[in-house]
Specification:
The complex is a heterodimer of chains A (166) and B (513).
Chain A lengths: L4 E8 L5 H10 L12 E10 L2 E11 L18 E7 L3 H17 L4 E7 L11 H7 L5 E3 L8 H13 L1
Parallel strand pairs in A: 1-3, 1-4, 4-5, 5-6
Antiparallel strand pairs in A: 2-3
Chain B lengths: L9 H15 L2 E6 L4 E6 L11 H11 L9 E7 L5 E8 L3 E8 L1 H79 L6 H30 L8 E2 L2 H18 L3 E6 L8 E2 L1 H17 L5 E9 L2 E8 L30 H11 L3 E7 L3 E9 L7 H14 L1 E5 L3 H13 L3 E5 L2 H10 L4 E5 L7 H10 L5 E6 L4 H10 L3 E4 L4 H11 L3
Parallel strand pairs in B: 7-9, 13-14, 13-15, 15-16, 16-17
Antiparallel strand pairs in B: 1-2, 1-5, 3-4, 4-5, 6-8, 9-10, 10-12, 11-12
Classes of the chains: A alpha/beta (166), B alpha/beta (513).
């Protein structure tokens, strides 16, 4: 299996929707109830790719933290990809996601990373400005997603799958 | 108490081992290097693995340790397994494969989750609260800005009304004067006489309107000082008769105005306001009466003035009675042609004089307004206070420095209205000379003067030891402009368009009023 499987760590502040994104991607479900994650939950799904072998993403849904020093770094070991998640309605979570990216680079210098700005369904309440995302896109793949309705989710995971399988 | 190092007695070690095993319910799974399960020890049921196929378990184990270096021990705390249970998971590499140890962590996980959940929810609620407060601040800021704009617009409106109505007076005075002269020289039967009456009727309406507008603007600015003086009641009645009898006559109405009691020759009242009250009531009565007539009775009884104006006009329907004192309420009465200010001004003036205004009306039959005004001298020394106020009013002087004649005139008018003696100059040099030669109680100076600015005037005066109060006016509402004026030595800085309430307050404060 190891030839087609890649470990992906979901990183981000609490309440940004990491667990919801995994649920939407793996089982196409969504729960309105916020339930905080403690420790880690491991899930997986195979991603089919045009003209290439499928790749299995093993998703480590890690408890939300704004900094790695509060996170058990043993969860990160062996990860090929990082899926950073921020909540568009809380600008501080974008800063947290970028901090986590900087910190995890020290542990995982070769890991591919993408950034998901979640809660697109609440775009009227977004604090993250479009110009900020335009600037971020110059250094990092950025996707606006809605775990509630699924917008952008498949595309984001597929992009990361392509990167980590390459 | 000294603790001894070394192993525990066997029975204690057995006890501890038994307790830990009971709590952790360990499951030990031995796999080969391809993750095939070769041996299992411990509580399979506790982790829900009893019903699962070996293949499923093998896949899960492989996913758990994917990408990790498997030649060294691995510890993963709080791992939620696919069965839903939570365990601390450790991997110990061996020669033939791996030993995976699962220790139950469900209780600890649940306990931590409750705490974490509460903390996170509180933090999210706090962020929402902060955001809501920020939004409220922004809304409040916007409302403040709107309020300021409205105040400025209102001040401008009041200034405009005051200026316009003030400017009406001079030409109207000429019109009435020349009308009087012409009426003396024209035969009563002549058609010209009728034309002159029409002119008088309309000029009277204009005068009433301008007086009302002036009063409206004045009361909006808060400048409402009474002016108690002895009134010649008979003279007042004669004036009113001369003013309204021709109008009533033209409309075919009977008109009577009489003074019932002549006991007190000169009661102390504010003549201007009393006259304005009666003019408005009579004007309305004549205007809204098509048949019959208007009767006004004025009496001085003891220490109150009683006035009654009765007409046989259209009356005020029940549904409009609440609104007749609201300013600009045109259309309340059928056939209304006025600005809708008259009765609101009457009510305000009567209240200013601490009197009472009542009315009775029957739609289609007529209306009767009654006014009772107490003497200004008898109310707890109010007359003295007002007299003192009057003395205060005229004991303070102001020097206005503004090159714009309209603004200068407006300032002069406002200051006169609140009781200042006012001198006006239009340039900086004259202002300095005048202020030093004859220091006013307040110097009101515009910043934007030609050649030398108002700030220069203030600076030069202060530099020469001038110690009087100075109020600076400017069209520049910035903090820098204010700071510059203060640095030059002004005491107060006001911006245009003028907020009249603030202006009156500052000017009074400047002279210690």
């Amino acid at each position: 299996m190891s030839g087609q499987a890649r470990k992906i760590c979901m990183l981000g502040d609490f309440g940004v929707g990491k667990t919801s994104l995994v649920s939407r991607f793996v089982s196409n479900t969504f729960s309105e109830r916020y339930l905080t994650t403690v420790g880690v939950k491991v899930d997986s799904r195979e991603v089919l790719r045009d003209g290439a072998d499928p790749v299995k993403l093993v998703l480590w849904d890690i408890a939300g933290r704004s900094a790695l020093d509060a996170l058990n770094t043993s969860y990160l070991r062996g990860a090929s990809g990082l899926l950073l998640v921020a909540d568009g309605t809380r600008e501080a979570t974008l800063r947290a996601a970028l901090d986590l990216l900087m910190q995890s680079r020290a542990l995982l210098p070769k890991a591919d990373a993408i950034l998901l700005i979640n809660k697109l369904d609440l775009v009227d309440r977004w604090e993250v400005a479009p110009a900020t995302l335009a600037e971020l896109r110059e250094s990092l793949p950025v996707y606006e997603t809605s775990a509630r309705f699924g917008d952008g989710v498949e595309r984001a995971f597929a992009d990361l799958a392509g990167r980590v399988a390459a | 108490m000294n603790a001894r190092e070394g192993s525990f007695p066997p029975e204690i070690e057995n006890l501890v081992a038994r307790l830990l095993i009971e709590r952790a319910r360990p499951l030990v799974v031995c796999c080969d290097r391809d993750w095939r399960i070769v041996d299992v020890h411990g509580d399979v049921e506790a982790f829900g693995c009893d019903g699962r196929g070996e293949q499923d378990c093998a896949v899960e184990f492989e996913e758990l340790f994917l990408g990790l270096p498997l030649d060294e021990p691995v510890d993963l705390p709080f791992v939620q397994l696919k069965t839903g249970r939570v365990a601390h998971v450790s991997l110990v590499p061996g020669d033939a494969g791996y030993t995976i140890v699962f220790l139950d962590a469900q209780l600890e996980h649940d306990r931590q989750r409750v705490q974490q959940q509460l903390g996170n929810e509180a933090a999210l609620a706090g962020q929402q609260k902060t955001r809501a407060i920020q939004q409220l601040r922004e809304i409040r800021g916007e409302l403040e800005q709107q309020r300021t704009r409205l105040q400025e617009a209102n001040a401008l409106k009041n200034a405009l009304i005051a200026t316009l109505s003030h400017d009406f007076r001079t030409p109207l005075t000429s019109i009435f004067g020349y009308l009087h002269l012409l009426e003396q020289h024209v035969d009563r039967d002549d058609d010209t006489q009728l034309s002159l009456r029409a002119i008088r009727r309309n000029a009277t309406y204009l005068l009433t309107l301008s007086e009302n507008l002036l009063e409206y603007g004045r009361s909006e600015s808060g400048a409402t000082l009474l002016n108690p003086e002895g009134i010649e009641l008979q003279a007042l009645v004669d004036d009113l008769d001369a003013m309204f009898r021709p109008l009533a006559s033209d409309l075919g109405l009977a008109f009577l105005i009489e003074l019932e009691d002549r006991g007190e020759q000169r009661p102390i009242l504010d003549e201007t306001r009393v006259r304005q009250v009666l003019v408005n009531l009579l004007s309305n009565a004549v205007r809204y009466t098509a048949r019959g007539g208007v009767v006004a009775r004025i009496a001085w009884r003891g220490d109150v003035l009683e006035a009654e104006v009765r007409d046989t006009g259209i009356g005020i329907p029940e549904e409009f009675r609440e609104r007749i004192f609201v300013p600009f309420n045109r259309g309340v009465r059928n056939g209304s042609k006025g600005a809708g200010l008259g009765l609101s001004i009457v009510k305000r003036l009567v209240e200013q004089m601490r009197g009472e205004l009542t009315f009775t009306s029957v739609a289609g039959q007529g209306t009767c307004f009654r006014v009772v005004l107490p003497t200004l001298r008898r109310e707890n020394g109010d007359a003295d206070r007002i007299a003192d106020e009057g003395a205060w009013m005229h004991s303070h002087s102001a020097l206005v420095v503004d090159d714009d004649p309209d603004v200068a005139q407006l300032l002069e008018m406002l200051l006169v209205d609140i009781g200042f003696r006012v001198r006006v100059v239009h340039d900086a040099d004259t202002a300095i000379t005048e202020a030093l030669a004859n220091p006013p109680d307040v110097l009101l100076v515009d910043v934007e003067l030609p050649r030398l600015s108002g700030n220069t005037v203030v600076f030069r005066l202060r530099a020469q030891g001038y110690r009087g109060r100075i109020v600076t006016l400017s069209a520049t509402p910035t903090a820098e402009a204010r700071a510059a004026a203060i640095a030059a030595g002004t005491d107060h800085y006001l911006t245009k368009p003028l907020n009249i309430e603030q202006f009156v307050r500052i000017m009074r404060r400047a002279v210690g009023g």
